[in-house]
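Re-running the complex after MR caught last week's input typo. The corrected sequence lines follow. Everything else is unchanged.
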Amino acid sequence: MVKERFTFVFSPDTYAKPITYHLVKDYDLRINILRAEITPGEEGHLLAEIEGEEDNLRRALEFLAAEKIEVIPTTRQVTVRQEECVHCGACTAVCFSGAMAMNREEWKMEFRPEKCIVCGLCIEACPLRIISVGFGGGKAGEA
Amino acid sequence: MAKTFAEINEKIKKGEAVVLTAEEVVRMADEQGLKATAEKVDVVTTATFGPMCSSGAFVNFGHSDPPIKMAKVWLNQVPAYTGIAAVDAYIGATELAEGREDYGGAHVIEELVAGKSVRLKALAQGTDCYPRKELEGYVSKETINEAFLFNPRNAYQNYVAATNSTNRILYTYMGMLLPKFGNVTYSTSGQLSPLLNDPYLRTIGVGTRIFLGGTQGYVAWHGTQHNPQKARGENGVPVGGAGTLSLIGDLKAMTTEYLKAAVFKNYGVSMFVGVGIPIPMLDEDMARFVTVRDREIKTTLLDYGVPGRSRPTLKVVDYEELKSGFVELNGRKVRTAPLSSIFKARQIAATLKEWIERGEFLLQEPAAPLPADATVKPLDVKELD
Ligand code: SF4
Ligand code: SF4
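Corrected-run output:
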């Protein structure tokens, strides 16, 4: 079994497809939707945690590619220019998934992308502006 | 056995001084007791690296030919104050570039320190001795005559912790405060913090030599809003913002590692400033002060959701709690996060320790003490008729 987080990006042509239905029915995947947004007439984003057999997941991703639905693993979404980080901790104040967390032995901020739900709050919170994200501009509270 | 500044300096010159950081001295006191610690240790290094809005730099550009008496000056489109001599200006860290919210004086200062070219624009009325009316071009720390950091208020002796009772996110200089007591932020380095290790400012005064922005600097004066009358705990440590320092140092010698522009969304621009202060172990009283522990340093947790001058105190908390990652509030565990970097503060305390151990940094006895009886006046204007 594997468990991974993805953002699915739907174009105006693909947003109406019952994708989650297919992922569950055809590939036996467990889907936990963490965040979703549709900009009318533009794009849709769906952030979900997917769990299932590795082979099923691989085939599901092939199916999505064939359906022209872009799939972005969340581990590639939020990025921190870590070499510039001063470990102030401002991002950890707003990150409730624990992706930005303070190691309180060394007092260094540690980023664990696999925990990120791409809420975008840390981007606004970082006084050095070294965090960026692709998801819908990363605006907080606009899910 | 009491020691003097001069005796400690002699030891430093001979390479015999025992120097510990404020964290290390706590461990030593735990193991060996206060008396032995007072005798064995000569200097304790303290440090902080937090956003300090009250910062800025004086720049003297040098004279152009024909000369100009600058009346208005912009550096990378950030206005600098020029109501002083012809080519002097003061650029404040929080001044914003015209038409921008995410770039300000702090960024200009950081770029100057980094050795980058900065665009200078100056306008003038033109006078007999200063005929030129306009000037535009690039300057850098190599080309300008002088540049020194002058910060009217830094190194706050303790500060409040902040939270938010409202239903919306508050964007403050204490960072983003999430709705309904969603988080708590705080901004000192606790037991490493300079003025918390010398609560009555016995050894820190006008002329104290310090670590500032990566080089040696000085305490110039007490800082604005200096408030030694603040309520104190039994150990003498103020519970909330009290003493402050005004600091000065050579900007050209500083490094961007310890001077960094900061942007607080919907609040403005500020600057992280790295400050380190050595505290001489004069006697056992000082040993007691420099071994202060996080659990003995208390501060007030304020509700920033109340926009008045007197925000209600929700609770008194100590730094051990704050640094644990959670505080108890209304029967709930609320997440805490720092805004001042303890990681960087440790680096500064360690660097200052090294300088002293190598004999490159001597302690400077203050030329004058900082006022002990100052209070902070609120702004109460006489209303217009
Ligand atoms: S985007 Fe949200 S979940 Fe991800 S790291 Fe930032 S604050 Fe945490
Ligand atoms: S807010 Fe920015 S600088 Fe501070 S710890 Fe987080 S990533 Fe680093």
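None of the earlier attempt is carried over here. The longest strand of chain B covers residues 268-280. Residues A 78, 94-95, 97, 99-100, 116-122 surround iron/sulfur cluster (ligand 1) (CB under 6 Å).
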